[in-house]
Amino acid sequence: xxxxxxxxxxxxxxxxxxxxxxxxxxxxxxxxxxxxxxxxxxxxxxxxxxxxxxxxxxxxxxxxxxxxxxxxxxxxxxxxxxxxxxxxxxxxxxxxxxxxxxxxxxxxxxxxxxxxxxxxxxxxxxxxxxxxxxxxxxxxxxxxxxxxxxxxxxxxxxxxxxxxxxxxxxxxxxxxxxxxxxxxxxxxxxxxxxxxxxxxxxxxxxxxxxxxxxxxxxxxxxxxxxxxxxxxxxxxxxxxxxxxxxxxxxxxxxxxxxxxxxxxxxxxxxxxxxxxxxxxxxxxxxxxxxxxxxxxxxxxxxxxxxxxxxxxxxxxxxxxxxxxxxxxxxxxxxxxxxxxxxxxxxxxxxxxxxxxxxxxxxxxxxxxxxxxxxxxxxxxxxxxxxxxxxxxxxxxxxxxxxxxxxxxxxxxxxxxxxxxxxxxxxxxxxxxxxxxxxxxxxxxxxxxxxxxxxxxxxxxxxxxxxxxxxxxxxxxxxxxxxxxxxxxxxxxxxxxxxxxxxxxxxxxxxxxxxxxxxxxxxxxxxxxxxxxxxxxxxxxxxxxxxxxxxxxxxxxxxxxxxxxxxxxxxxxxxxxxxxxxxxxxxxxxxxxxxxxxxxxxxxxxxxxxxxxxxxxxxxxxxxxxxxxxxxxxxxxxxxxxxxxxxxxxxxxxxxxxxxxxxxxxxxxxxxxxxxxxxxxxxxxxxxxxxxxxxxxxxxxxxxxxxxxxxxxxxxxxxxxxxxxxxxxxxxxxxxxxxxxxxxxxxxxxxxxxxxxxxxxxxxxxxxxxxxxxxxxxxxxxxxxxxxxxxxxxxxxxxxxxxxxxxxxxxxxxxxxxxxxxxxxxxxxxxxxxxxxxxxxxxxxxxxxxxxxxxxxxxxxxxxxxxxxxxxxxxxxxxxxxxxxxxxxxxxxxxxxxxxxxxxxxxxxxxxxxxxxxxxxxxxxxxxxxxxxxxxxxxxxxxxxxxxxxxxxxxxxxxxxxxxxxxxxxxxxxxxxxxxxxxxxxxxxxxxxxxxxxxxxxxxxxxxxxxxxxxxxxxxxxxxxxxxxxxxxxxxxxxxxxxxxxxxxxxxxxxxxxx
Length: 1058
Fold this sequence. Notes:
Blueprint: H1 2-14, H2 16-33, H3 38-75, H4 79-92, H5 97-109, H6 114-127, H7 134-141, H8 150-162, H9 169-181, H10 185-197, H11 204-216, H12 238-247, H13 255-267, H14 275-280, H15 287-300, H16 303-315, H17 322-332, H18 336-345, H19 351-364, H20 367-376, H21 385-397, H22 401-409, E1 413-414, E2 420-421, H23 427-440, H24 443-452, H25 472-477, H26 487-499, H27 503-516, H28 521-533, H29 537-549, H30 557-570, H31 573-588, H32 595-603, H33 611-623, H34 630-643, H35 646-656, H36 670-682, H37 686-698, H38 705-717, H39 721-733, H40 735-738, H41 743-755, H42 759-771, H43 778-790, H44 797-806, H45 813-826, H46 829-841, H47 848-861, H48 864-876, H49 883-895, H50 899-912, H51 919-931, H52 935-946, H53 954-966, H54 970-980, H55 988-998, H56 1001-1013, H57 1021-1032, H58 1040-1049
Antiparallel strand pairs: 1-2
């Protein structure tokens, strides 16, 4: 053993160097790689790593393919596939914001509700860390602006807030643009204030949105955007808005914003603050801005502002337009030398400039200036025809008929065929030209105008100075010569006879024309016109009938126009009926009416016109809708408003005016804009009314007092009385419109404030109109009186009446009616009757409204004698009492237990004025019977009037039946029930219908119980009534006790009751 150990020791000693070297290598391996088995496990780890990398790459590859497939499906419009891919994307990993936007839009297009969309997005945001940042949120919100779904956007913001993602400046920019697109200006301002509170600086686009918001609202005040020194919710000055403008880079600013800024500055009367920025070039000066500044200088009479604006335009090389030159001509006033200098500066003449020059000529009477203008006009330019027409009218009205004729004589323009023609002249110019030609004895022009007259409108002929046609004998003598004259000459002679009222000579001449073979449709129309003027409508209709039977001389639009218009002017119901019959004949002959006939038919419509007449008139409008012009459009709208047809007015507005109109009509007159504004106010479209007002202002059309009245009434009557009042105040500040504001316009303000129960504003407005020198009218005092009555300020009526007398006004019927209404409302019937007696002693007679107001007061005060006397006085006056009047008296007499008098007064009134009692009056008398507990009389009255097919109130009848049952008059109650349900003598179908409408099961059971328990009745009464009720109401149910009582007193029922 010892030998073995020695051998091992010797062996180790011999290998000691190798062992030390191996041990050192082992220790070095451990310290360097931390793994003593690294050389052996290297291959295994490499194999495992390769397997894991392959799996990760595969997952990434599938996710990318899903995103690409989702985008491809979205671009192809396959939104269902997008949603299927969305389900897979949620399981594979993160979803890019752009893909999420596509998914959300697909959900919206597939009509998924908001809660579903929100839940899907919420699920992703809560589990995906990559989506929990503000950039992802902004990227998601930005494309969603297209949907304008502010509710969804706000809910998405709440989802991101739950994971700690708060909005930044970019987010607020997105939100502001969203709300600005929906015109939610309050939301925009609230966002600006919130952004300030959070210490965020607005982006350039946010500042631009805030500036646009201020301009859209017509004020140069930005709330919460600039000026951290200001408290919240306090408007900064106009300089803040300018600072907003300056902060936005010029290249990102739309050009029109600067013009809007200048326009708002002019409106706010604060041009001084924008002028430095215009001079520095920060706000670019456009021709529109220049025109605004020139117009403002005219308004405030500041020549320095005009010179400053012109200097800026010259330094920037700005070209002036026609509007600019017209303003300069207006600014020149009567300085004709300056106007001539301006005309020399013009490179081409504009109609606006020409009109401005002629306006100055009309004021100064300077014919020489008009001559200068005439030299600048080119007769060959068709676009300058309106200027020539104005020039002709000026010469004719200025006492220069020869010049007017010369201008027309040299006016030749090329037509569509390339040949020279005279331009079409309007009726006003033609009238002036005819007078000028006759004054100068220019027979050539007279003949030309006569020949050029439209045959459809009849013949135009010169008139003598006294306004009558030329000499009849002289004209007729032309027909006796040897020369054969054309039909035009015969028609002139015939028309001359008609115009001079020589009907017999006209008939004789028409006979000669027929024998000579020169009679035509114009001749027949002229003769028909003669019959109409002499109100010989039967002969006119006979002539029309003969024309309809004549294959050669068929009636045309002018024929029907003459006869129908004449019938309508006669203003008799029989003639109106015949006129509409002729409309049917015209349509049967397939004759398209002219605009004048359609306009006359529309003007004939009244608030009480039949619905069929309104419908047919509007159908005629549709027949000529291609010819509808400004005048006819106004007539259509005014007729629709007059008859109270809201849908008709809305339809015509959409057809003929505004964006998207099928047959748009160009409106250029102040009166026409007034009709449009009135129509928009009638249909409760205040935005449309403001749009018309803005367009009229942009066209620089001077509004008339009627137009202003329509606008103020449209705004005030639709609830915005403050807006209407502010409009009136702005008009008073403008020298051009100050004179147009009158007491009628203020009447709308007074009426609006009184109906809003703001009497303090009523008195303020009343004092304001007097301070501006506007004399109140009787209508003004009546409006304030009505406000006092409506708002319980009767104590101020006395002082107001004193003021009214100081202005020299006497009360009219409306004044008395309002006073009576006020005293009755206050319970002061003594004063009310004193006013009534004063009214009767005057020149005006009280109307039905006055009597009804007093009767209402008597009803409240319980004055039976006075009420009855009022109705007697009313009938003695010859005024037929209405159903409302008699119903009020019946209530008064019933309260005084004077049932007999109630019936007698109603019978006397119906007999005297020949009318039958209707359901409303029947109900009032039945209620009176119930009040007086005269149930049997009420039942007999109902059974009597039931034969006249009157249908009284169901609840009243039921109360009457219960009253009869309560007083023991059961059999009468059963008869009344039968009549009420239409059982007696009614057909089965009618009975079924009335039972389904008026059946009260509890009431029927009450009557059956009373019949079953009544003494002395035949045993079959209850059974008979039950069987009749069962026939019309099979589901009628009776309780078991009632069934036993009925069986005990009558025949046993074969079928069990339910």
